[in-house]
Structures are given as C-alpha cells and as structure tokens.
Specification:
Helices cover 40% and strands 20% of the residues of chain A. By secondary structure, chain A is of the alpha/beta class. In chain A, helix 1 runs parallel beside helix 10. Chain B is mainly alpha-helical. Chain B has a 3-stranded mixed beta sheet with strand order 1-2-3. Classes of the chains: A alpha/beta, B mainly alpha. The interface between A and B is medium-sized, with 25 and 21 residues.
C-alpha cells in the first residue's frame, strides 16, 4: 500500500496566485457559517475564491451531488456544511455526505481535540488526535431485508483500508512527535472484522518502534474518555467507533461548536466541522458558534500552504475564545454569531497593524 | 441512571403517556450526554449502542464499581449482574466494591415485587456512600469490602 500522509501536492494556484476552492453550503447552520468564513477571508484578503455548489437534500436525484463531486475533483479542495439526510426519503437514497467521502476516497477523517483555556469544561488538559477510517465499516450502506422484519446490515472491513488508515495514524503521530497510538475496536465480539482491523494496526505499529501501540475495546474507551481523558494521545479506529469517540471528545472540550474536522484522501481534501451537525434548530437565528467552521477554514488554508493567513485567522479566533471570552449560547455565553465574527475581524486588524509596525522597524 | 438491556426479540411497546423522542446516536452522545446527562430519562437502543452508552454512563456516575444492570427476557426470566468484569487482580483480597452487585440485587428485588426490601437496602447503601466515612479504594477511601458491607448492615439495623 503506497500511503502518503497528505495528497501529493495542493492543487496549483489558478491565476494570479489565487486558489479556487469548492464551497458546499449544506443545510441548517452551514450556509450562514460559511458566509461568515467568506467575510473573514475577504477582510483578511485571503487569495482564495470559492466556487459555490448547492446540494438540495430534499431531492431524490443525484445530479446535485454529482455536480459537487465534479467541482471538488476540479479544484482538489472543498469546505462544506453538513448536508441533511432526510429520513423521509427512501432507504435507497444514501447519505450525501457519505457518498461524497466514498466517491472522493477521503479515507482519513482527522480531528484534533484540545482543551481551550477560555472554555469551562469538567476535564482539562485534553489533547487527543482522532483518526477515523472514513470510507467503510458500518457505513457501507449495504443492507437487505431477506425476510420481512429481519434486516441484515453488512459491516465491511478490508485489509487494504485498515492498513492505510493505520499507516496514516502512525505517520501523523511521528510527524507531530506524539508518543502513543491506541486502536479502538470490539474484536472480542466482531472477531473477524475488528480482528482484522486490529491485526493491521499491529503490523503497521511494528514499523514505528518509537511509538507505543496499544488497543482498547470501544465501550471501555468511552468510559475512560469521560473519566480520565488525559490518558489518550492518538487514537485510530473504524468508522462507527470514530463517530462515537469524536462526538464524546467534542463534548469533553466544550461542544460541537468548537472543533474543526478534516477529511483527507490521496488526492482530495474536504474540510468541515468535526461533528458534522446540521444544527437545524438553531439555523438563521444568529446564535450558532462560528468557531468550528472558522478553524476548519484555517485547516484548509494550511493544506493550501497559505500558513500565514491560517495563523492570523486562527490566532484571532482563539483570542476571541480565550481572552475576550466572547462566547455564544452553546458555551453559556450571550454573544451572537455576528458579534463573535466581528470580534475575530477586530483582532485580525490588530494583528495586521502589529505586523506592519514590526515590518517598519529599522532592522 | 439505570439502563435495561432488553434481550428479548419482541420490542416492548411504549406506554401511552411516555414521550418518545427519536434521537440519533450523534445527537445523544456528544455534548448532551457528556455535558448535561441529566436531561436524559430512559434511553432505548440496539445492542452495540447499548454496550457503548452503558459504559459511557458508568464512567459518568463513578465507574464500574457502582453500576448495576439487569437482563430481562420476554418470558420474565431475568438475570441481574454488575457491569464490571471478574477483576482477577483484586479477587479474594476483600478489596472490591460490592455496590454494583448489591444494587443489581436491589433491581432484582424490585423485579420480584419486593419493593420495601429493595428501598431499604438501596437507601442504606446510598447513605453509606454519601457519608464518605467507609469507602472502598475505587471511591477514594481505604476501607475493606467487609467493612463497607458492615456499615450498610448497621444502617439497616438502625432503620428498624
């Protein structure tokens, strides 16, 4: 398996040094949060143009999704809101978010959960990287009802995909100087499926002697996470456990409004909030927390090697969160989405002025 | 919070008065369960999710040493057990916390209709823990299993 940590190289800047990125607004709070991202990018003069592709989640046809996938193939990178999976549509209509991930082979979902000093949480000093296999497992969407009232769902685990996700996790751990990788599984029950996953992790681990490898059963893992989360470093796991563990971890550091997520394949990358919530109940009320989406856009800028812009925006977001302590309702504050975004832009302005003054100083 | 893992093949029909909300796993596990678990009352779910959520909740309330459970069959046959395992490292040393198994027995008494006895034992157990004078190691004390048990029995005698 030839595995590269990042795609070969970011897509070439299109014209005049500007990148084009596909933007999928999605449903719920996605559109408004992504508008704020665009505002912040404009304010910061980020050399990124967005190609907006709308996906109507109420339609049964695949045209919108095909357009979106084609656009991402063209641009190489996307920033997206969550596309609602309407339960009223027939079962043959698969989750659009899932289709996107599998069509583009975005095999690694990466989430970095860190405690933020400005956010009150029960547990402190959390710093966990979660690497979730993103294309198979329990999300194979292969189900059948051979006998009425008896449904069989197929969970698919392959050696190829297990090896490549394990390799991604260990490479990332090595690159970031992390010490321990924990594989999360339920191999005592799913002996063949999770057993294969675990075996692949062990094989890959043997090539990284400086990194400690251990494994933990998923139910025990969630219990340990809510009682002693500081014990975890890097965690790698199949799809469904990844969903569970990432949501628990997001809750531990302050909620879904804070954590950005990234989906990487060998060629494409798509950025979004880590817990992929639509947030229908709080949409268009100016109360959603823009932090996760803004930080996701910073991950995207890092991916495009626009690190300076990424740093400025990230610092501004974290300053607003930790120092100004302007918090939205999900964090127990009373700030509106707009107030937080304006605060971020004010800090960017200050950071720019500092930089200009520093540049003007005699050397 | 006590979770019943229903093993029978026919699902229980919900009572008319119960409010039922369809929550997907994601909505249940993230922020709400970890940050404000008190909003939940009764949760029903398939096997794997139950396995995960029961351990997660055990972690929220103090760990495996205090979490009881019951397995109820459609024909009324029931087996009650603690959620924790065999703990071979502390077996036979008078160190284990008996709360989980004791509260499982309380669940069993309720299942059998012996509510008076169940209430008495449960109250004595909770009061002993609340008192914090006699606690096993997992709860931060250094009493033995037998000492903890004796404290509960003493409370029950005092109740009579």
């Amino acid at each position: 398996v030839i595995c590269k940590l990042c795609p070969l190289s970011p897509p070439p800047a299109k014209y005049g040094g500007r990148h084009t990125v596909t933007l999928i607004p999605g449903d719920g709070i996605g559109p408004e949060l992504l508008n704020h991202v665009r505002e912040v990018f404009r304010f910061t003069c980020v050399p990124v143009d967005f190609e907006v592709v709308n996906v109507n989640s109420a339609l049964e046809t695949d045209d919108d999704m095909n357009n979106a996938i084609t656009a991402i193939r063209r641009n190489g990178v996307a920033l997206k809101g969550n596309i609602e999976t309407k339960h009223t549509l027939p079962a043959s209509v698969k989750s659009r978010n899932n289709v996107l991930r599998t069509s583009l082979d975005l095999y690694a979902n990466v989430m970095h959960c860190q405690s933020l000093p400005g956010v009150q949480t029960r547990h402190k000093n959390i710093d966990i990287m979660i690497i979730r296999e993103n294309t198979e497992g329990e999300y194979s969407s292969l189900e059948h009802e051979s006998v009425s009232g008896v449904v069989e769902s197929l969970k698919i685990i392959t050696r190829n995909n297990s090896l490549r996700i394990a390799d991604y996790a260990f490479k990332l751990a090595r690159e970031r100087g992390r010490r321990r990788v924990t594989a999360v599984h339920k191999a005592n029950i799913m002996k063949l499926g999770d057993g294969l996953f675990l075996q692949c992790c062990r094989e890959v681990a043997s090539g990284y002697p400086e990194i400690t490898f251990d494994s933990m059963i998923v139910d025990n893992t969630t219990m340990q996470l809510v009682s002693k989360p500081q014990q975890f470093d890097v965690m790698v796991m199949p799809n469904l456990y990844g969903n569970v563990v990432s949501n628990v971890c997001a809750g531990l550091v302050g909620g879904p409004g804070l954590v950005p997520g990234a989906n990487y394949g060998h060629v494409y990358a798509v950025f979004e909030t880590a817990t992929r919530n639509t947030g229908k109940s709080i949409a268009e009320k100016n109360i959603a927390n823009p932090t996760a989406m803004l930080l996701a856009s910073c991950l995207m800028l890092d991916h495009l090697k626009l690190n300076d812009y990424a740093s400025v925006i990230r610092n501004a977001v974290l300053t607003t969160m930790n120092e100004t302590r302007l918090h939205t309702a999900d964090l127990g504050g009373q700030g509106t989405t707009l107030e937080v975004v304006q605060s971020v832009m004010r800090v960017i302005q200050i950071l720019r002025r500092i930089r200009m003054h520093v540049a003007d100083l005699p050397s | 919070m006590v979770l019943y893992r229903v093993l029978s093949s026919s699902p229980n029909k919900p009572a008319n008065a119960l409010q039922s909300t369809l929550l997907n796993m994601q909505e249940t596990i993230r922020e709400p369960m970890v940050q404000d678990p008190t909003q939940f009352d009764v949760l029903v779910m398939p096997n794997l999710y139950g396995d995960i959520l029961s351990d997660l909740c055990a972690g929220l309330i103090g760990g495996l040493g205090v979490t009881p459970s019951g397995n109820i069959g459609a024909n009324g046959v029931a087996i009650f057990e603690s959620v924790h395992g065999t703990a071979p490292d502390i077996a036979g040393k008078d160190l284990a916390n008996p709360t989980a198994l004791l509260l499982s027995a309380v669940m069993m008494l309720r299942h059998m209709g012996l509510h008076g006895h169940a209430k008495k034992i449960e109250t004595a157990c909770f009061d002993t823990i609340r008192d914090r004078k006699v606690l096993t190691k997992d709860l931060g004390g250094n009493s033995k299993c037998s000492e903890f048990t004796e404290a509960i029995c003493q409370r029950m005698k005092d109740m009579d």
